[in-house]
């Protein structure tokens, strides 16, 4: 039997949870005790939204944030998470880091992917963030700028009644 430390959360998940509390009014954040395909559950009143967090180190230069993320195709196609949040760390001019969040509804991500999974059954996404422009540049460039730090997408989903 494999034992995991359930009390140590992934750093990217904690960063996203903290930002959710800052950006979305009256939201409660819950962490599942085991891997269920959803890293965070955002709840307001009777409505909940499952969120999958993907984190990447920075591949960009100062003033830019580039992140490379890999997703299992079967999870993206079947998962319960309504949103994917891609956390990319950008380097600032003071050699610090600035968090950038690309927030995409799962169904939109599936449509925009427009590519087949690799032979290993994975999708890869290479987000380039420069200012307010976001492109996914792994195969054919695709614009994701509308999803940069767009917390309103999750806020609106929490307004819907289930």
Throw out a few tags for this protein.
162 residues; 4-stranded antiparallel β-sheet; globular; 36% strand; Trna Endonuclease, Chain: A, domain 1; alpha+beta; single chain
What is the fold's blueprint, element by element?
Blueprint: H1 11-23, E1 28-30, E2 40-44, E3 47-56, E4 65-72, H2 73-78, E5 83-91, E6 97-105, H3 106-113, E7 122-130, E8 133-136, E9 142-143, H4 152-159
Parallel strand pairs: 3-5
Antiparallel strand pairs: 1-2, 2-3, 4-7, 5-6, 7-8, 8-9
Structure description:
The chain has 162 residues and is α+β, with helices and mostly antiparallel strands. It has one domain (11-159): Trna Endonuclease, Chain: A, domain 1 (3-Layer(aba) Sandwich), CATH 3.40.1350. The protein is 22% helix and 36% strand. The chain contains four helices and nine strands. It has helices at residues 11-23, 73-78, 106-113, 152-159, and strands at 28-30, 40-44, 47-56, 65-72, 83-91, 97-105, 122-130, 133-136, 142-143. Strands 1-2-3-5-6 form a five-stranded mixed β-sheet. It has a four-stranded antiparallel β-sheet with strand order 4-7-8-9. The longest helix has 13 residues, at 11-23. The mean pLDDT is 86.
CATH T-level fold name: Trna Endonuclease, Chain: A, domain 1
Assign the CATH class. Answer: Alpha Beta
CA gyration radius, whole angstroms: 16 Å
**SSE pattern, N- to C-terminal:** HEEEEHEEHEEEH
List the strand order in the largest sheet.
1-2-3-5-6
Secondary-structure class: alpha+beta
Summed up:
The chain has four helices and nine strands, in the order αββββαββαβββα. By secondary structure, it is α+β, with helices and mostly antiparallel strands.
């Amino acid at each position: 039997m494999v034992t995991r430390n359930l009390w140590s959360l992934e750093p990217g998940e904690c960063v996203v949870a903290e930002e959710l509390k800052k950006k979305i009014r009256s939201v409660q954040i819950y962490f599942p005790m085991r891997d269920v395909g959803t890293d965070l559950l955002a709840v307001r009143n009777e409505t909940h939204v499952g969120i999958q967090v993907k984190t990447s180190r920075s591949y960009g230069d100062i003033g830019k944030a580039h992140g490379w993320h890999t997703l299992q195709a079967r999870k993206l196609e079947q998962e319960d998470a309504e949103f994917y949040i891609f956390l990319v760390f950008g380097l600032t001019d003071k050699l610090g880091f600035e968090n950038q969040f690309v927030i995409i509804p799962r169904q939109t991500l599936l449509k925009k992917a427009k590519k087949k999974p690799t032979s290993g059954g994975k999708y890869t996404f290479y987000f380039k963030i420069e200012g307010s422009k976001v492109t996914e540049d792994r195969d054919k460039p695709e614009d994701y700028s509308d999803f940069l730090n767009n917390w309103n997408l999750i806020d609106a989903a929490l307004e819907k009644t289930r």
